[in-house]
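Reopening: structure tokens for the magnesium ion complex, inputs below.
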Amino acid sequence: MRKFLVTCALVLFAALAANPAAADPVEDILTGFASSKYDDIEKSIDALAASGDAAAPAILDALSAGDLQVSSDKKLYIKGDDGSLKEARSGADATGEIPPGLKAVKVNNRVRRAIDAAMGQLTLLSPDPAKRLSAAASQFHAPDPAQLPAVESAIAKESDPAVKRAFEQARAAIILVKSDAPDADKIAAIGLLAARGDEDAKSLLDAATASGSPAVADAARGALKGIERSLAWWSAAQNVYYGLSLGSVLLLAAIGLAITFGVMGVINMAHGEMVMLGAYTTYVVQQAVMVAAPGLTDYALVLAVPAAFLVSGAAGIAIERSIIRFLYGRPLETLLATFGLSLVLQQAMRSIFGPTNLQVDNPSWMSGSMDLGGLAITYNRFWIILFAVAIFALLTLVLRKTALGLQMRAVTQNRRMAASMGIRTGWVDSLTFGLGSGVAGIAGVALSQIDNVSPNLGQSYIIDSFMVVVFGGVGNLWGTLVGAMSLGVANKLLEPVAGAVLGKIVVLVLLVLFIQRRPRGLFPVKGRAVES
Amino acid sequence: MSAMRTYSVAVVILGGALAVALLSLLPAEHALHVPGYVVALLGKYLCYALLALSVDLVWGYVGILSLGHGAFFAIGGYAMGMYLMRQIGARGVYGNATLPDFMVFLNWQELPWYWGGFNHFGFALLVMALAPGLLAFVFGYLAFRSRVTGVYLSIITQALTYALMLAFFRNDMGFGGNNGLTDFKDFLGFSLQSDATRAGLLVASAALLSLFYVVCRMLVGARFGKVLVAIRDAESRARFLGYRVERYKVAVFVFSAVMAGLAGALYVPQVGIINPGEFAPANSIEAVIWVAVGGRGTLVGAIIGAILVNLGKTIFTGALPELWLFALGGLFILVTLFLPKGVVGLWDRIMARRVPAPPLVAAPVRQPEAGE
Amino acid sequence: MTEVTDALLYLDGVTVSFDGFKALNTLSFVVAPGEMRAVIGPNGAGKTTMMDVITGKTRPDQGTALFRGSADLTKLDEAEIATLGIGRKFQKPTVFEMHSVTDNLLLALKGDRAPRRVLFARETLSERARIDEILETVRLSAVRRRLAGELSHGQKQWLEIGMLLAQEPELLLVDEPVAGMTDAETADTADLLRRINQTRTVVVVEHDMTFVRALDVKVTVLHEGSVLAEGSLDHVSADPRVVEVYLGR
Ligand SMILES: Nc1ncnc2c1ncn2[C@@H]1O[C@H](COP(=O)(O)OP(=O)(O)OP(=O)(O)O)[C@@H](O)[C@H]1O
Ligand SMILES: [Mg+2]
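Re-run output (same inputs, fresh job):
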């Protein structure tokens, strides 16, 4: 029977909404705003909100901004910032002469409060599901028993399942804080919150354990335990995600090194500065795009990747030709000379761009985050993971499948033999070094998104990068991948236990111990080449 | 090198320091008066020279390129800093007789146990030598026993000092965190502000440097030193002759670390502060470049290099601060490319052209490690 | 350990593999005290690897390696094995290039190698006499003050043998001692080794057949990590398998 009535009401409502020719109650409500009494205005606000009319939000907005105007014939207009006038209901530009007796509708604090409440109610009924969802969330976070009827009616009208669930959770939250709600309802609400199982649900349940009714308190405690367990899992998973993302940063920073140090055996202490050059290139490209084609600023990063590769790669080739070439077979000297080079490059950037951090913008597609179960996946980290994996795959392919890769391996395995087979070993060295440096530059593009672009950018990664390469096993790209990821994850898993700095120290110490146990890393390359 | 020449180096260092110290005690208006800041500066150079000497001993003679010697230097410095902190007593800002200011600031109630004993100079002195030595022993034992050599060793020594830097930055380590230890008042009862104390510290630094120079010279001149060079040039040959290479390496590494620690200890009262920045990997590498500039494997070269480079740094950072890093960086590159034997090698070459004489010391240029 | 053999050097079932490749394959090799043995075999046969196992440089995956029937060579490191009395000359001559010839010998002289002893060691008259004697033996008296790095290839080979002598080992392992020598030098080296063999046990690896013939001792032929043939040079040269893999027709 009741169902029947509701259906009738709904049908009626639909018919009303579909037929604009029918007597329009909203127009009546709007005339109330012409009154000079705050009471009347307040009543009109409530009525307008209850009507759920499409124009209501705009009208209420204008009212609270003081832009709602009423003429002496009780017609409402909204004044735009530019002085234009629109009819409040239809939103059409007002034509003809300025309506006579136009004045602003008065607001005081009580009216403002009424507007706020009305807006909350309106968004519960908003045609945009995203708006309804956020309205539900705000109800959930600040449950107000007074809103229970509004929420319940919203549930009844809701057709989108996700939004409906959000409303139900909001209702559960309200019931839980509502002191006079029956125990049975509260226990049902606890069940719902337990299913939600996040930090917010936990704090609501926490409060509920103090409930006067033992049954409710017990149920809340039981639910809490379950939530805590699952939260622990989620937070571990979250840390693993952070770890993977740190790991990909390490991978990006180290993978160029895996080529120059791992494959060629050249210690390049200026590797970090190749990364830094890449980050600065990103900055320059972004500035240039902003000036030349402001619409494309979001895609400046895409352009920066090849640019950074070229800049750092060219720098690498120049370094190889001018310094490293003369120091082959003298690793310790190479280390010192390239360290000197890193000082020069840092100072050069400081002189050109100044010592302060530069602002590199995140494009819109890299900002924000999404929720995956209990995980918050930030887009920039997510993209960096993908990017790192892609670069890794690409590099593996280059080494495996291209002529350069083949010659590179030939030269590193047996230089004399390669030379006698007509390979120009000098050029292969230069190109290999350029490749490693160029990849470092690409790493700089990614790092510019999550770290400060400053002359010291590279410094903070150089030790970690060497650790990754040595840990993974020199001369082995897969080792670098595994090394970077396990170091990243280990760091992040230790962080909550030991604190960020101590965690890092522990990892460093463990690494030093590990290297002493297995000097050739996780995946050693055996053979004569490495022994000499 | 002849004993004559060995002692003459020591005499020059000690005599020069004494002369400067005496001149600094002249009345300020006297034409030959040396101002106090110059004395402190020279004292600082001599401490750096001692650090360089310790680096040269392991790098020049055993081939261990330590990029973490700054850590031993800093630990020695912290031990001295702790003694100096305790000397402040109730004269700190908070007037607490036992707790240093930073602990009062952090609301600590009592002195951590490891600060105990530092009010006695004898104990502090022991720690200045033993703490770096112990760290070097543990680290060296693990590293050399598992035969970590070459750049791998360099990289893990760098990681070691890096980790220590991070650790000392933490407030709850109890070493003053970021700010380190500073605001010292006096040393062995002498005010650190007085010219006489500065002069005394300068002479003490010179004496310590000369002493260690002579000891190192004797060490490398004796059969022990020959074994070290043998290990540097052909480690596996030395092993197959029956030498326990790792024991030699540990012994020298520890000795060198003690030297660096004492250098750091004398450095702190002369500059008036010790903070975690001293652990920065760049500092350790800079010490290596002093040695390279002077001439690796010559001992004198380390001293000359440390003084020359730091003199350059003082001049440059005063006149053209932004150019200093260019100059230092360029020095790294040019010396390794064009001056593999450093200033001393250059000197030898010039002398050799005039009077054919035996080289000062046979410094290595490159030594491929023969594995087979 | 009980004495299981009266051989000076006893290898049994020794296998060494590198990434699955077997450089030594259940190798058995026995040398009696006072013997001189020549080991030949094609490149990559495992001769140097065998010496690596004996001197503790490479740990075998399987097998027994005993010295004087009691010392387990697979458990000791290079320095311990050297002190036991096994000396080794590398295939590529390895001397201390930055030291003088005399200093090279001084460092090799038998004595206590512990750092704290070496620290206070002074050169004694008997040490000096011993060095002079060795310099005579290896004919390097004329260049005694030169840096070892300045010597010719052949002189370095001899210096390294001199260092072996200074060590006074019971067993000498000599890897390709005459590589890069003239015919006259080769003959001299053979002569020198025979003299050394009067007091010590020697294992020589060589490719030079005239040299092996000049030694006139029992020969072991290695191939693919195991013993292919053993006996007098004439005996093994007659073996068709040896001719096939090594000597050529
Ligand atoms: N450390 C190592 N890693 C990988 N393979 C090795 C190693 N040492 C030796 N081998 C391989 O083991 C095999 C035997 O080498 P070994 O040096 O013992 O041969 P050999 O008989 O001494 O040859 P030659 O006459 O050329 O000196 C070779 O194929 C070599 O490549
Ligand atoms: Mg061989």
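The beta strands of chain C are 9-18, 21-31, 36-40, 62-67, 71-72, 86-89, 171-175, 201-205, 218-223, 226-231. The radius of gyration of chain C is 18 Å. Marking as resolved unless the reporter disagrees.
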